[in-house]
Design the sequence.
């Protein structure tokens, strides 16, 4: 029973390590990732809400783009 358990553990570890082997963007996939919809700031409404939250919490304007904040703890 212990031999079977150790084999299953080894198999699961190898499978989990092998799952990360194919990370990365292939050259033929880069055109899809370059589209405007794939940008992190594609939604203007979300950006406006994020800016309002940062402004409210940090007491500064443009808190997302600049270092430091309203608390004085750079």
Sequence:
């Amino acid at each position: 029973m212990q031999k079977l358990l150790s084999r299953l553990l080894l198999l699961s570890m190898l499978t989990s390590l092998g799952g990360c082997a194919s990370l990365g963007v292939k050259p033929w996939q880069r055109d899809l990732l370059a589209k405007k919809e794939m940008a992190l700031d594609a939604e203007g409404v979300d950006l406006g809400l994020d800016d309002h939250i940062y402004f409210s919490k940090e007491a500064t304007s443009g808190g997302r783009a600049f270092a430091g904040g309203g608390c004085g703890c750079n």
Q: What stands out?
A: The chain is about 50% helix and 0% strand. Residues 2-18 form the longest helix (17 residues).
